[in-house]
Amino acid sequence: MFRSLSRPAPLKRLLNAALLAVGLACGAHALAEDTYPQRPITLVVPHPPGGSVDGLARLYAEQLAKELGQSVVVENRAGASGMIGAAYVARAAPDGYTLYLNASIHAINPLLYKKTIKFDSVKDFTPISELAQGALIFSVNPKVAANNVQELVKLLKAEPQKYSFATTGFGSAGHLAAALFLHDNGLEQIPIVLYRGGGPALSDLIGGQVQGLFDPMLSSLPMVRAGKLKALALTGAERSPLLPDLATMKEQGQKNFAFYSWYGVWGPAKLPAPVLRRLEAASAKVMASPKLVEQLNGLGFEPSVKDSAAFARFIDAEMRRYQIIIDQAKIHIAQ
What we know:
Layout: H1 2-6, H2 8-35, E1 41-45, H3 52-68, E2 72-76, H4 83-91, E3 98-103, H5 105-112, E4 125-140, H6 149-158, E5 165-167, H7 173-184, E6 192-194, H8 198-207, E7 212-216, H9 217-225, E8 230-234, E9 260-268, H10 273-287, H11 290-298, E10 302-306, H12 308-329
Parallel strand pairs: 1-2, 1-3, 5-6, 5-7
Antiparallel strand pairs: 3-9, 4-7, 4-8, 4-9, 4-10
């Protein structure tokens, strides 16, 4: 009897050990949140230097480094419509030292590259925060004999073989906006030429190799102000204070045409909760910085901060919206 009564002792020791392990884990999480980061962070940009994603990334990285007390190095890993850089981050250790900043194309790629994409845009990443949104400028080469959208539609319908549009990446917000515009106006026969980033696309648009482009204000606005491009419309719901005389697409007869490019930051899947909380809080502070807000507004962006959970819900809703646009515009699925 005595021995049988003493048998629960090992169970008690196991319970005590389990409680100790939980306590240590909680302490480790708290410690991780207090001590992260302890070395430089790499912020992967899956596009070439010079475009809107790269421009925003460098502004964000500069302020994030100040907030975290560690250097944040922007690393461009361009190619395959942003999927090379994304795949690299998906394989990285989920420790908070490899982050990823991209635009809405991250949510569009899986809808277009269903058979060839090497990662899951949702399951292989931890959404940290949405950062900003911005309307696109619809611009043309200055030699195009149109000063508004209605005049351009007439030109395109009269001689469609003379025109082509550029896109800075297959599946980018600019690509979907161009495809939607051509579809809505019965101009699907006009080609959309793929470029590897904003720099090459803008160069050929200025040179006249292509005639039209939907592009974020960060990269196109300086060219418009310099007279190298002619702005015909803005894709936002309202006019921009940067170009108050530039009418929106909707104002120019393009019904229900409101399109934005949005930007966010992710980590690999299974990012530890303490690290995620640290990055969420740091991103919110960075995007609320008066200096950064002023810089962003001057480039056509509006801070649009969402925490991880809200950002995940937003991405899900956007992917459903993009699928409708892809189906309506009959964008060829890349295989």
